[in-house]
Amino acid sequence: MIVDPLGRRFKNLRVSLTAACNYACTYCVPDGKKLQALSAELSEQELNYAVRLLVEAGGIDRLRITGGEPLISPKFDALLDSLNELSLLDIAITTNGQFLSKKLPVIKRAGITRLNVSLDTLDHTAFRSIARSGDLATVLEGIEEALALGLQVKVNCVPIRTANLDQLLPILEYCLARNIELRYIELMNMGHLKHNQSYEQDFVGMDEILEKIGAKYDYYKIDAPLDSTSVRFEIPDFGRFGIIANESEPFCRTCTRLRLSSNGQIFGCLSNSKAFSIKQLLNEPYPQAITEMQTVLRSAMQLKQRLAFTGETTVMKFIGG
Asked: In angstroms, how far is the first alpha carbon of the chain from the final one?
């Protein structure tokens, strides 16, 4: 097991199946254009081997499948089938939900029970403006179908002052009515926002989010797992919500996350653009590959921030959420 001086270890692996996405959300993509060729991505065989090595070498027990948009990847079905061979406590998927209805049979067959769906607004016009693609009604249908199948759904919402500030309560009430835990995610100082004044203009912090909720509902803070990124709250008789307050209440000191990009790069920290390529390592036989992977993970662990997220120019769609 690889442990740093703060007692952190890698427990939660986030695997980006592809950097491609059918959306081009304004807070993620600078101009809506594809930024990485599909030919740069790991093959299905390389991806499966990489995940197996990371689970074994890092002591990973939780895995989240991300993108880009993972449901559009041709590797999605096969990866889900292969994950059952690994000793994992939990597997979850983050998706924009546009193709959720089509992929629910595959997800259900693989035994996956947890989904996170990105949903920044319930207004159809604002939806197209933020995502620069997609259809809100189709996403909402996918959520309803997932709930009907008994899947646990969480909704992720990024508050943006100039785009969806009026939607913070409507989305909360949509989620409370369906026993969905909503998680507001503070806008991250990453990618094209790192050196852009629009970040300061659009940022909405935890205090302001809670003020808007508190104007209508009573709430109180509840416990969350030690390595949780979310500050969680309960509204009596209604339900729960959380805030991923990467700026307002940083969680770096307890972070257990490791990221594998779709092109075979290991990222130990979102606040550091330094990455370690493991593509060559994937040609090695298993015993040698495990040893080399542990060396990579020790280096990746050293990049983790001790106190707080400081921002980075890395584009989030390259390395997953």
From this structure: 24
Residue 219 burial by Cβ neighbours in a 10 Å radius (0-12, 13-18, 19+): middle
* Nearest Cα residue to 286 out of 84, 41, 57, 3: 57
H-state helical runs in the chain:
44-58, 76-83, 100-109, 124-131, 136-148, 168-176, 198-202, 206-214, 286-301, 316-319
- This prediction has a pTM of 0.93
**CA of 41: how far to CAs of 18, 44, 246, 275, 310, in Å?**
7, 9, 29, 15, 28
Of 42, 37, 54, which is closest to residue 78 (Cα–Cα)?
42
Beta-bridge mates of residue 80:
none
Phi, psi of 69 (to 5 degrees): -115, 105
pLDDT, tens digit, 9 for 90 and up, residues 6-53? 788 899 999 999 999 999 888 888 764 555 666 789 999 999 999 999
DSSP character for 276?
E
Phi, psi of 134 (to 5 degrees): 80, 175
